[in-house]
Amino acid sequence: MLRREQNDLLTQTGPNTPGGRLFRRYWLPALLAEELPNSECAPVRVKLLSERLLAFRDTHDRYGLIDEFCAHRGVSLWFGRNEEGGLRCPYHGWKYDYTGQCVEVPSEPEESGFCSKIKLKSYPLLERGGVLWTYMGPPDKRPPLPEWEFATVPREQSFTSKRLQECNWLQAMEGGIDSSHVSFLHRGELSSDPLFKGAKGNQYNLHDTKPVFEVAESPGGLYVGARRNTEDGNYYWRITQWVMPSFTMIPPRGNHPVHGHFWIPIDDENCWAWSFDYHAMRPLTVSEVAAMRDGKGIHVRYVPGTFRPMANKDNDYLIDREAQKAGRTYSGVAGIAMQDASLQESMGPIVDRTKENLVSTDNGIIMARHRLLRAIKDLLDKDATPPGVDAQHQRVRSASVVLAPSQAFVDAATDALNARPGVAHSTV
Amino acid sequence: MSSESARANATAEARFRIDDANWRQRVVKVMALDRRSEPVVRRLAQGQFGGATFFTASAFAPAAPSHADMQFSMASWLSDLAGRTKDLLDELQTADLVAMVATAGENVQQVASVVGEACKAKHVTTIAFVLGSASAPREALSSTLRQLRPWTLMLVIAASEEAIAEALAALRA
C-alpha cells in the first residue's frame, strides 16, 4: 500500500515532476537503432517522459532528438524533409540541425541572423548496442554512456526489442521484480518456450512451487533472491537484479540467453517495455534469434508496422478460454510478455496503490518503492546523484546458483552478480 | 467497436471502481530478537501503526542460558516495551503476521527458533528484517541469516530502520 501522494511521486514523470527529475538523471533507451536505418531516412516521432520529440539521422549520420514541433507555427516536423544536414519544415522551409538549432529561415534575410535566435529543445542521442540512448537531464549532470552488459557485448551476441505497454511504467516494472507470480502465470512456458525449456533449474521451479525470498540492497538497486529446495538438501537460488530506476534482469536458465527489461515512461499512462536477450560467451544462434523475432521468450509479435503487440487490449489479448481451461496457459493469454502486460494493463492506466493489499512475499516491490522514494527525496533535498547512474552499478548480472544452506547468496554469489567479460553467467 | 478490455482499461472507467475499503486492519506482532534490535523496535513503535504491537525477546538471547537451563516457558520470556511479560502463544492467537527484527552478527538462533516454531504451529506468516549488514563482517551476516532462514517466508536485509517502517506501512500494519 502506498499513500496517494507517494503513488503520485512514483508514477508521474513529466517535466518538473519529482519522479521526472529522477528519470532525467539516467541515459534512457529511446529507439532501436534500426528505426533510423540510414542517413536522411524518415524521422520518427518519440514521446518520452511526457515530452513530444522527433528523432532523425542527418546527412552525416548524426542522430538528433529534438522538439517535435516547428518553432514558427507549431507544425509537426514529422512531415519534414531530411536533407542537406538538417530537417526542413515543409510549411515555410525553416530548417533545423541535429541539435535543434535553426539554421535557415528562408523568408528572412540571411544577413539578419534571425535563425541563430531560434533553437528547439534537444537531447543527445547516441548509439550503443543497437539502441539509441538519450539523456534528458541537466547537461552538467550527464553521466558517461551506459555500461549494461547486453549493450556492450558484440552485436551478434545480443537481441533487443521493444513493445508498447498501455499502462504506467511502475506497475509494469513491478512485475519484473515480482518473482512469485512466475509459478502461476507463466508455469506453462517453462516447459514449452524454446528460450526457456530444458534447463535443470526448471525442474526445481516446478517441483518446489513455494519459494521463499530474500531481498537485499545492491549498490544500484536490489537483489531479489528466490530460494527453492534441491533434491540433495541444498538451495536453488534465482537472483533477480533491479537497478534504478527501471532495469530488471531475470535469472538465466541453462545455456539459454539471459534476458531482462527496461521500463521507460512514454507518458504517465503508457510505457515502453524494452526486452533484451544476450549471451556473454557466444553469438545467438539462428534459431534463437528466429524465436525472439517470432515473439517467443519475453518478446512479442507486433501489429505489422508498429511496436504494438499483436495481442492487445483492442482484441482482448486474443484470450483463449479453452487453453486456460485445458491448462495450456494459466490466464488464457499466450506468451510470457503478454501474459504480464494483459494483467498489468487491466489494473487501469495508473493503478491505485492505496487500495492494494500486499503480503510479505511482495517485499521486493516494497523495497524498490522505498529506494525510489528515498532517491527522489535525496535528489530534491541534496541534489544527490541517484543509485544506478554510476556505470559500476550497471555492470551487473542476474544469476541462478545452487548453494549450501549455510551460504548467504549476497556473499556466495558476489562474483556471479557482476558482469565479467569473457566469463559465462552462473546458471543452472 | 472497441473490445471489452479496451473499454474497461480506459481512464474514464477507473472512476467506477468500487470505493469501499477492501481490507481490515492487520494484526502484526513486531519482535526484537536481540538487544541491539530493541531500540530499533522502540523507535518503530513511535510510528503510526494501528495494527502493530511491539515486543522484545532480547532477554532470551544472546547471553541468556540455554533452553534446558532456564526451564523454558513460552509464557515467560516475551515482553512488551513496558517490560510486561507476555505469552507468545496468546499473542499469536490474533496475529496475521509476525515481523522479527534482528541485527547482523547477533546470535538469534534460539529465539528465532522459538518464535518460528510457535508461528508454524499457529499458522502465522513470518517476515524477518536484518539490520546492520553494512557494518557487520560478512560471516556474521551469513550466520544471522542462516539462523533466521528456516523460520521465515521473507528475509529482508534492510539498509535502515526507515525501510522496516515503510514495509510495515505497506503491509498495512
Keywords, separated by commas or semicolons:
heterodimer; A: 428 residues; alpha+beta; eight-stranded antiparallel sheet; four-stranded antiparallel sheet; 13 helices; 19 strands; globular; B: 173 residues; alpha/beta; seven-stranded mixed sheet; 19% strand; elongated
Please tell me about this protein's structure:
The complex is a heterodimer of chains A (428) and B (173). Helix content of chain A is 22%, strand content 24%. Chain A is built from 13 helices and 19 strands. Chain B has 173 residues and is an alpha/beta fold. A 7-stranded mixed β-sheet of chain B has the order 4-3-2-1-5-6-7, sandwiched between helices. The A-B interface holds A 1-2, 166-167, 212-217, 269, 313-317, 342, 345-346, 348-349, 352, 355, 357-363, 366-367, 369-370, 373-374, 405-408, 410-411 and B 2-6, 8-11, 13-14, 17, 22-23, 97, 125-127, 133, 138, 141-142, 145-146, 149, 152-157, 159, 162-163, 166-167, 169-172. Strand 13 of chain A pairs parallel with strand 7 (154-157) of chain B.
Secondary-structure content class of chain B: alpha/beta
Number of helices of chain B: 7
Percent of sequence in beta strands of chain B: 15-25%
Please bin the fraction of helical residues of chain B.
Answer: 25-40%
> Which range best describes the helical content of chain A: under 10%, 10-25%, 25-40%, 40-55%, 55-70% or over 70%?
10-25%
Question: What's the SSE pattern of chain B?
Answer: HHEHEEEHEHEHEH
User: Ranges of chain A with pLDDT <50 over ≥5 residues?
Assistant: none
Strand composition percent of chain A: 15-25%
Number of helices of chain A: 13
Radius of gyration of chain A, whole Å: 23 Å
- Whole-number radius of gyration of chain B? 19 Å
Oligomer status: heterodimer
Quote the average pLDDT of chain B. Answer: 89
Number of DSSP strands of chain A? 19
- Report the span from N to C terminus of chain A: 35 Å
Question: How confident overall, as mean pLDDT of chain A?
Answer: 95
Q: Which term fits the overall shape of chain B?
A: elongated
Biggest beta sheet summary of chain A? 8 strands, antiparallel
Strand elements of chain B, count: 7
Using CB atoms under 8 Å apart, which protein chain pair has the greatest interface? A-B, 42 and 40 residues
